[in-house]
What we know:
The protein is of the alpha+beta class and 426 residues long.
Amino acid sequence: xxxxxxxxxxxxxxxxxxxxxxxxxxxxxxxxxxxxxxxxxxxxxxxxxxxxxxxxxxxxxxxxxxxxxxxxxxxxxxxxxxxxxxxxxxxxxxxxxxxxxxxxxxxxxxxxxxxxxxxxxxxxxxxxxxxxxxxxxxxxxxxxxxxxxxxxxxxxxxxxxxxxxxxxxxxxxxxxxxxxxxxxxxxxxxxxxxxxxxxxxxxxxxxxxxxxxxxxxxxxxxxxxxxxxxxxxxxxxxxxxxxxxxxxxxxxxxxxxxxxxxxxxxxxxxxxxxxxxxxxxxxxxxxxxxxxxxxxxxxxxxxxxxxxxxxxxxxxxxxxxxxxxxxxxxxxxxxxxxxxxxxxxxxxxxxxxxxxxxxxxxxxxxxxxxxxxxxxxxxxxxxxxxxxxxxxxxxxxxxxxxxxxxxxxxxxxxxxxxxxxxxxxx
Length: 426
């Protein structure tokens, strides 16, 4: 079977436009407004950001993960991967192109599972790029393990009442609405007893206990939150999808997102490799360039090979999704690229940062966010260990135990078998 990652010339022209636009128009936002990407627009930034978003729309590249009926292009996963590889080098680019997490995943599941009324109320503002949303799934006592979730949603007449706490709810600080995952049938399996709800952020009972950020962000200034749901009452039509479908919806949301994250990391890793090569050619010590040092060359070679292998693996995974249209069939490889993502970013960023010496660990180079990103990628959408277990379990399904005492490739046993196979000729 041939694997074909090629795209038509017209799409290649779009990719080149994205590269130029990101470098010339979007990266200035990264430098001038590095911490404003996920905040509501003010009078200073609003006109700039809306103009850039409109230019993206004019090129037909806004929210490219969505179908034409929702204003996107309906690009498959391979094309989306190639786009995200370019966007990954800028923190503002996902916002400008309508591909920012968690909004992309939230938009996808509302588009797929939402009613017409839910799409009009929640999806349309997201697609217009004028609001942010929050995904509220993990819990302080459970992390990402759904079997330990305790947040409940109970029927009360025609309404649902949600009670519990959620931790690290993404984009809670600026979101207009929250997608909450709650137990609706405690007697059922955790994978069939939970449901998702669309909840406006200003609903009575939605209480943010505190905001939190990642390493390097000031206390109480992060974009995530510990949220208490104190008897939050929502109408019956707040249910997203069918009752008990939360786990299936979450997996739909996360599958494609892991490919997008991986290719953005490819872009970031390429940027780190570019900086490493430039530094090696520019810096001299002990009478020769760093590029002439054998250990530096070894780091460059390792980084190039590691990145090339990972990039092809991610593209192959994206190709499988496009071909089979079945995330379950590709689950093993999706999990594999997920646990490789932080490793690749960590290794290449560290080598590049280290080669820059003291300058590399200073705030005059962009390594700190990239370095933090490696740690973050190891826990978002499920920790590395969970995905390794998934891969190992699926690999083992294709094998069976040896039928006897010795392994099937035991040489004395194989030689005896070979003699019997040829005894009529010997």
